[in-house]
Each structure stands twice: as C-alpha cells, then as structure tokens.
What does this fold into?
Amino acid sequence: MNKQILLYDQNLSKAEQMLEPFADTGSILQFVSEEKTPVAHFWTTTPTVILGLQDQRLKNLSGGLKMLEEKEYIYYLRNSGGLGVVTDPEILNFTLFLPNKDELSIDQAYEKMHQIMMAAFSDKIETGEVVRSYCPGTFDLSIDGKKLAGISQRRSGDAVAVMAYISITGNQKQRSQLMKDFYEISNYPVHQKISYPNIDIHCMENLDILTHQELTISLAKEKILNALITDDYSIDKTSFNIVQTSQPYREAYDKTMEDLIYKNKQLGEKNDI
It folds into this structure.
C-alpha cells in the first residue's frame, strides 16, 4: 500500500456547505479504491446537528427540528445510518481513507483509529459503547468511562473510510443537553421499535479535560498527523486539490450530492408538516 497520505483540511462556515463532507466521502472512497492512495480528511463546522437516517423515523421529528431552529442550529441529514450528533468549531471530524479494504476487517479498521488516537493523545483511551451518550456505538472512545469520540466506518469498492467524531474542547455538557432535548421532543410518543438514546449529559467529556492538555483544533490536527507519521506514513498537504478537480472525482461528488439534496428536501418537507 502507498504510505503517502493526501491531506484534505476543510472548514465549513456556511449553511450551504454543510452537505459537502458527505459528498466528498463518496468521491474519496472511489478515488482511494482506484488509486490505492490513502487520504486523511479533517473538517469542522459552525453549530450544526447532523442527523442519521434512523432519525427520520422519530414520531415528532418536526418538533425537534423546530427546537434546533429556535436555538439557531443548522441541521441536515447525512446519507448513512445511525443517530444524530452535534458539531461546532471545537469538534474535529476526522476520516482516514484506506485502500485494500479486505486486508482490514471491520474490527481491525476500528482498532486502527483507536491506535491513532492513543498515539496522538493518550494511551488511556479505551473502546466500548457508552450507552447513554448521543450516537452510542460499540467502538466509542473514552477515558475513565467518559466518551470523547465516536467512530463509524463506510466501505465501498476496495476502500474503507474510518470516521471519528472527536470532542476536542468547548462546552460538551451543552452539546449533550441539546441532543437530550432533541430526542425527548422528537421521540414523543416513545417509539416502540427503535431505542433512541436516553442521554446522560455527564457521560461525555472533552479530550482536553480528560487528557489534562491545552488543546485546540489546530493542535489536535497536528498531533493526529504526527501519529500517522510515526506509523510510517508521509503527509502530502498540497496534492489533494488536484484530485478534487479531476473528472471522475467531480462526477462521483455530483452524484452523491444530488442524493443528499433529495434526502434533505424530504427532511424539510417533514418539518413543514
């Protein structure tokens, strides 16, 4: 496998940009599958709630969406399963795209992200579901039982994308309270077939507090890149823009974006009910 990683560093500041990372994900997966070149993708957002496909089945979703609007949060629906998360400028979203996916089982791909996070921040980081967090998952990352990150993955062609949502700094209890309020409003009456999270706002915490480090988003990115270099990768910070302008990339991007726009148009129609 090519040990040079292309870096894609993205900061989303406008509502109309918010679908871009998920359109990029499909395009990058195709590129990595074909070219066998790994990609590291960082992205941050303004205050935003990203919903999963399962959230569409909430009984009073329109009520929850109106609450988010009142609190001046952007919201949108991603093109994958799972539940909602809240992001803001102090949350780092990091995706590592790797080729030759059959060489990494699902668990091994998750463990690779775990190892990178330990090398970057603390060897005390553990895996295991933090049940009462928002968007709980089997490979949540935590220290002393406090969730600091969630991991998911997507596989397509001959590539895998391992995605981490990392609470670097900021007001994590406020984020958790927002998602608690969202689910309490949206899941009324309580859904009998889907278990939406009963959130405890004290079970998640920021990486800076849990590791006793003064962290910023920029410093966290630097630490992750250094961990990748320690893992014998080299980082190419300039070439990804060439990939983005290629015709195959743009075609894959446009196709995924069209699907995302359609899904979010349907979400908007639900909120108008």
